[in-house]
Amino acid sequence: MATLVERLELDYKTALKARDRLRVETIRLVKAAMERLAIEKRKPLLDDQEIQQVVSQQVKQRRETIEAVKSSGRQDILDQAKRELDILTAYLPPQLSPEAITQLVEE
User: Fold this and answer.
1) What is the CA radius of gyration of the chain?
2) Is the dihedral of CA 78, 83, 19, 11 positive or negative?
3) Tens digits of residue pLDDT in 4-39
4) Are 46 and 55 a contacting pair, CB within 8 Å?
5) Alpha-carbon distance 61 to 81, whole Å?
6) What is the rounded CA–CA span in Å between residue 4 and residue 100?
7) Which of 5, 7, 28 has its CA nearest to residue 16?
8) What backbone phi and psi angles, to 5 degrees, belong to 73?
9) What is the spatial distance between Cα 11 and Cα 46, in angstroms, rounded to a whole number?
10) 44 in helix, strand or coil?
11) Residues 86, 94: contact at Cβ < 8 Å?
């Protein structure tokens, strides 16, 4: 199975070829955040867990943007943030449902 870095690179190249501007820009932002974290930690490469943290931060930013823009009436910004959120969540592990969490707690 490919690492998260390899998956991001492959998706980036695919999006470039497909001229999917939004996906290219979103992945580019993630890659820039990864580079900043690598410089901050003084590591040449980040592991998958660190990359997931970066993606999680990006997801959190998009959710905050969505909440902030809902009341402003700027549908274009809202739609873009939602599409970016969809792109980013594909790189995170699936979240447990409330029922699954309850079941784990009971066990």
Assistant:
1) 16
2) positive
3) 888 999 999 999 999 999 999 999 999 999 999 888
4) no
5) 9
6) 25
7) 28
8) 85, 10
9) 18
10) coil
11) no
Please name the amino acid found at residue 49.
Answer: Q
Tokens of 11: 């998706």
> In this structure, what token pair is assigned to residue 90?
């594909």
Q: Are 68 and 6 in contact (CB under 8 A)?
A: no
Task: Output the average pLDDT for the chain.
Answer: 86
Any residues with CB less than 8 A from the CB of 14 and at least 6 apart, and which? none
| Identity of the residue numbered 60 | K
| 73 Rama sector, left if φ>0, alpha if ψ -120 to 50, beta otherwise | left
* Residue 73 reports pLDDT greater than 80: no
Pairwise CA distance, residues 5 & 91, whole Å: 10
Task: Find out whether 79 and 65 touch, Cβ atoms under 8 Å.
Answer: no
Overall pTM surpassing 0.90 (yes/no): no
